[in-house]
């Protein structure tokens, strides 16, 4: 079934006030600046597999409705995040800077990137320390629910691509050793003075996510943007009841470039806070990253050198946000018309 999403109404409220969930999305596309965000209804097993594949090929991004995660799990985690970010700065700074896990403020990664945000970064696979047991509980409950959604989406993706086994993608990120990360981001409203100097202050600079896929949920504050294939940026209307899925660099490799990782960024909002929670599904460190043989057409060659997730992540964490992290692993292919043949033609 194709359903149309109602453009979300953005209510203004005081910074860091959790918003009440809006009415459930009933209508299959949400529009923004005349751009249509592909919307997949997870409760529709018939058309979703092919729609997921189409969205991943065209954009590397889609919105997911009817995902089955109770809104109470999302709003509880949002409230826990809001409680933490509302603490006095000196309290939050106890765990700062993140190494790379913990609390971070304005600095993103360790290579000089900055943004108008503060955040908490967790490693779900190994025990990260949590600011409070209630936040730990809320995060565990939410991530358990997201894992089910990730499994379903990745299995529908395999169905849509007509490859077997169904769990060919999901087993990579659902494994006990899979490197799963979680991030709570808080973008405070951008002060008018700063807005005056630069009307579009960057919250989180443009980048692709290195993992297989990322699952984003935010409150109803706009600011999230994705890049289209022609390089233009479009805003994604926020929808706190839905999830947004980003294709990551690793999925680009697994599909030999058939799916492209989506470039995205967050612009700061002048009036209200944005709070987002992102689940990053990575692989286990020793897992080989290479195109799936089931997806290779006759004679098709891999676009990438072989490497493990550990090698890729180690390299990725030495790069700046906007860098193309896959370039080091791309195989340079000689064009069919090489210089000598050009010379002979001339
Ligand atoms: C600048 C950086 C931050 C980042 C590590 C990196 O060196 C390049 C990749 C960045 C990114 C983007 C997606 C996720 O938010 C993240 C946690 C990840 O796995 O890769 C961040 C890293 C980070 O914030 O440490
Ligand atoms: O906070 C957001 O909405 C997106 C942040 C993001 O892309 C990231 O943390 O990798
Ligand atoms: Fe991201």
TrEMBL record:
Q: Does the keyword Oxidoreductase belong to this entry?
A: yes
- Name used for this protein in its record: Gibberellin 2-beta-dioxygenase protein
Organism source for this protein? Dioscorea alata
Supply the source organism's classification.
Eukaryota, Viridiplantae, Streptophyta, Embryophyta, Tracheophyta
Instruction: State which Enzyme Commission number(s) the record gives.
Output: 1.14.11.13
Q: What keywords tag this UniProt record? A: Oxidoreductase
Q: What class of enzyme is it?
A: oxidoreductase
